[in-house]
């Protein structure tokens, strides 16, 4: 395969993607070209960094010189800014499988890919493979949430997982004794991934309900609210998430950088007694208890 990469501003990405796909790219990937850790939009907004690198993957029989020239002309770009790399032949499925191993979180919670044996059959094991939506436990924000759940099992509690992604937190809560979970997300792929992962873990449909946020009953409140998204939507959603958490219940906020923690705590202290519960690799986990 041949990988072609070119720079783009956020407002140019659609045109660049269309050009790459229009000339035969089998896939296109966007990544940050600067030093911005991550940009999370408000619901309904497009998540993009200001400066990006757009990469297209092509079959090895393309005419590389001709394609470079065509892209440069179509995108009004100097051809020297278009870079290519010949990728070695590789079994990419096998490579992915080799890179993804069972991981333990806390004392007894494991994330185990389906092709691995469980390291501890008596532990709490979640079967999960890389898929449509992020959330396999490898990112610090997800890891901190899983460790928190392991240390504070939500026995017989009703749990809301807001921004469920792969459903890993909702499934983990159920495996650790939750009575039921609602897993909501604005991304349909996240709901698909959550349902598939729930089935893979033998979670009954009546215990895990998925959907867009507006599927939540108007009067639904929860003993535990989990929101592993990022700082900007967490700030905007504060009144809504507070309204979904019962008095005396707890909220877990993740996806925020260390430098954003104080602002988030100040925002949520209107409704919760807030504290920093964990920190890892520049990311912070906040815990709050809903005031009576």
Automatic annotation (TrEMBL):
E.C. number:
2.1.1.-
The biological processes this protein is annotated with in GO are: methylation
The subcellular localization recorded is: Cytoplasm
One example GO MF annotation: protein-lysine N-methyltransferase activity
Q: Which InterPro entries match?
A: Ribosomal_L11_MeTrfase_PrmA, Ribosomal_PrmA_MeTrfase, SAM-dependent_MTases_sf
For this record, the Gene Ontology CC terms, alphabetical, are: cytosol; ribosome
Keyword list (alphabetical) reads: Cytoplasm, Methyltransferase, Ribonucleoprotein, Ribosomal protein, S-adenosyl-L-methionine, Transferase
Q: Give me the reactions it catalyses.
A: L-lysyl-[protein] + 3 S-adenosyl-L-methionine = N(6),N(6),N(6)-trimethyl-L-lysyl-[protein] + 3 S-adenosyl-L-homocysteine + 3 H(+)
Q: Where on this chain does S-adenosyl-L-methionine bind?
A: 142, 163, 185, 228
Main localisation: cytoplasm
UniProt-listed PANTHER family: ELECTRON TRANSFER FLAVOPROTEIN BETA SUBUNIT LYSINE METHYLTRANSFERASE
| Its job | Methylates ribosomal protein L11.
NCBIfam families, alphabetically? prmA
Family, as annotated = Belongs to the methyltransferase superfamily. PrmA family.
This chain's protein is named: Ribosomal protein L11 methyltransferase
Organism, by scientific name, is: Ectothiorhodospira marina
């Amino acid at each position: 395969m041949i990988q072609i990469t070119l720079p783009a501003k956020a407002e140019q990405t659609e045109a660049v993607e269309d050009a790459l796909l229009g000339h035969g790219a089998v896939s296109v990937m966007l990544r940050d070209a600067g030093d911005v850790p991550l940009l999370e939009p408000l619901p309904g907004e497009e998540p993009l960094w200001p400066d990006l690198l757009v990469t297209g993957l092509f079959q090895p029989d393309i005419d590389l010189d001709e394609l470079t020239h065509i892209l440069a002309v179509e995108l009004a770009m100097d051809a020297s800014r278009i870079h290519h790399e010949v990728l070695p032949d590789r079994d990419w499925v096998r490579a992915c499988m080799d890179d993804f191993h069972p991981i333990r979180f806390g004392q007894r919670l494991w994330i185990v890919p389906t092709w691995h044996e469980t390291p501890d059959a008596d532990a709490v094991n979640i079967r999960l493979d890389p898929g449509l939506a992020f959330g396999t436990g490898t990112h610090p924000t997800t890891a901190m949430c899983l460790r928190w759940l392991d240390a504070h099992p939500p026995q017989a509690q009703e749990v809301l997982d807001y921004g469920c992604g792969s459903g890993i937190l909702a499934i983990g809560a159920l495996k650790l004794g939750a009575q039921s979970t609602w897993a909501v997300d604005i991304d349909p792929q996240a709901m698909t991934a959550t349902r598939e992962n729930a089935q893979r873990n033998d979670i009954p449909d009546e215990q895990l309900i998925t959907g867009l946020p507006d599927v939540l009953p108007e009067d639904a409140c929860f003993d535990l609210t989990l929101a592993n998204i990022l700082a900007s939507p967490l700030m905007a959603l504060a009144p809504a998430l507070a309204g979904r958490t019962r008095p005396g219940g707890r909220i877990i906020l993740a996806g925020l950088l260390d430098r954003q923690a104080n602002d988030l705590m100040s925002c949520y202290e209107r409704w919760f007694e807030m504290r920093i519960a964990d920190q890892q690799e520049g990311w912070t986990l906040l815990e709050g208890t809903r005031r009576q």
